[in-house]
């Protein structure tokens, strides 16, 4: 259904440090930077991009938006969360852990990147 996700950044170098660390914690490679300065991360068939806004206005995060990343297990979600905090992200929502509801059991870990974008590591657990 999705081809890619893209977030805005006001500081691409800061974002590269953050996302290289975040995705490196779960086996991803460092981001590639194109001739326009955009970062591209490719992992497990997904593409995630970071760019300065094309309209020249400051990047802002979307209120109510969350970008979720699939994790293989809770330990991988914890490593992702820890790497994000160490690379300049901030914890948000409840601490990493199991959430149950609507016949689903999920392990979730939330962060905000240095530009305020809300990110979530998600592992679907057996019911």
Automatic annotation (TrEMBL):
Q: Which domain of life is it from?
A: Bacteria
Boundaries of every VOC domain copy: 1-124
Q: Which InterPro entries match?
A: Glyas_Bleomycin-R_OHBP_Dase, Glyas_Fos-R_dOase_dom, VOC_core
Parts forming coiled coils: none
Quote the Pfam families the UniProt record gives. Answer: Glyoxalase
Q: Which PROSITE patterns match?
A: VOC (PS51819)
Cross-referenced SUPFAM superfamilies, in alphabetical order? Glyoxalase/Bleomycin resistance protein/Dihydroxybiphenyl dioxygenase
Protein name, as recorded: VOC family protein
Q: Which organism is it from?
A: Sphingomonas horti
């Amino acid at each position: 259904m999705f081809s890619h996700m893209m977030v805005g950044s006001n500081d691409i170098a800061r974002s590269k440090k953050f996302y290289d660390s975040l995705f490196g914690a779960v086996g991803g490679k460092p981001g590639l930077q194109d001739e326009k300065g955009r970062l591209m991360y490719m992992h497990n068939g997904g593409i995630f991009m970071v760019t300065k806004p094309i309209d020249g206005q400051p990047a802002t995060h979307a209120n109510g938006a969350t970008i979720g990343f699939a994790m293989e297990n809770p330990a991988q979600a914890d490593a992702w969360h820890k790497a994000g905090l160490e690379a300049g992200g901030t914890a948000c929502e409840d601490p990493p852990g199991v959430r149950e509801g609507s016949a689903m059991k999920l392990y979730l870990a939330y962060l905000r990147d240095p530009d305020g974008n809300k990110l979530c590591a998600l592992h679907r657990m057996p019911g």
